[in-house]
């Protein structure tokens, strides 16, 4: 493990594999290096071609945190890592981490291309939107000493897990791990903003993104995520959509690593299904 220091003094912990042009992986909500082994597996598989970085987003794992939170601080965290890696970089984001990657590219970070896995946009009525006070309720749970309730709200309102299933999850050994980073769930809520409201994506939100973008989804994932991925690919002139057979909201390193290698080495987004 190594670290970089973000602009506001936050320590960002990371691991890296291989040599070559940098490829940086951003986790989605609740994930970090200790609980998501896929990033390390991708790093090992791509080590012959790239220098792959996986980091703990602020407030998770071995990274520190600095209040107050703002999405701009997470963009600065990524900027510090890109600067350490040697700009410019390819950036890959999982789920809400994909949306953070979009924000970072729109903000002008030295990113050469974006690969995005199932950004969780809700752009129609195919599933309930997030409650309008979602972030405020998350913050209130944490402030009130109820991190488990924040995790439950995320699971039911954002991830679509049933309340009965969450009741069972509360008894599982991994639940305290989720509670430990419950305060960061609201960070991802702020990153998503109004993009899980059931309305079409704002047409100018990422208009500054001009690099090649590869938007990926599994064919066996939630239908609303396929709709959201298609909406983003249609919105961005430089984007192409790729559907990976049999994959769900998660995938494996054996599937992801070749897709990332092909995207970077081709120099442009692969023309998948639109």
Automatic annotation (TrEMBL):
Name of a matching Pfam family: Abhydrolase_6
Signal peptide: none
Alphabetical UniProt keywords: Hydrolase
InterPro entries, per database record: AB_hydrolase, AB_hydrolase_1, AB_hydrolase_fold
GO molecular function, one term: hydrolase activity
Domain AB hydrolase-1 positions: 41-249
Top-level lineage group: Bacteria
SUPFAM superfamilies referenced in this protein's UniProt entry, alphabetically: alpha/beta-Hydrolases (SSF53474)
Name of this chain's protein: Alpha/beta hydrolase
């Amino acid at each position: 493990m190594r670290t970089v220091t973000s602009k506001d003094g936050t320590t960002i912990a990371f691991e890296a594999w291989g040599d070559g042009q940098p490829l940086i992986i951003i986790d989605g909500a609740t994930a970090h290096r200790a609980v998501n082994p896929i990033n390390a597996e991708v790093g090992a598989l791509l080590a012959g071609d790239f220098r792959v970085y996986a980091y703990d987003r602020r407030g998770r794992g071995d990274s520190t945190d600095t209040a107050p939170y703002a999405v701009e601080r997470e963009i600065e965290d990524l900027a510090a890592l890109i600067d350490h890696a040697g700009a410019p970089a390819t950036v890959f984001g999982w789920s809400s981490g994909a949306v953070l990657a979009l924000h970072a590219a729109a903000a002008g970070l030295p990113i050469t291309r974006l690969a995005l896995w199932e950004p969780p946009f809700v752009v129609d009525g195919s599933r309930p939107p997030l409650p309008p006070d979602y972030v405020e309720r998350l913050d209130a749970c944490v402030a009130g000493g109820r991190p488990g309730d924040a995790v439950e709200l995320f699971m039911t309102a954002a991830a679509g897990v049933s309340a009965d299933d969450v009741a069972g999850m509360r008894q599982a050994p991994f639940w305290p791990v989720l509670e430990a980073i419950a305060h960061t769930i609201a960070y991802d809520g702020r990153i998503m903003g109004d993009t899980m409201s059931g309305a079409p994506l704002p047409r100018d939100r990422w208009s500054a993104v001009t690099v090649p973008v590869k938007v990926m989804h599994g064919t066996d994932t939630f239908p609303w995520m396929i709709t959201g991925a298609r909406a983003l690919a249609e919105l961005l002139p430089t984007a192409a959509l790729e559907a990976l057979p049999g994959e769900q909201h998660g995938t494996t390193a054996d599937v992801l690593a070749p897709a990332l290698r092909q995207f970077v080495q081709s120099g442009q987004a692969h023309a998948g299904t639109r």
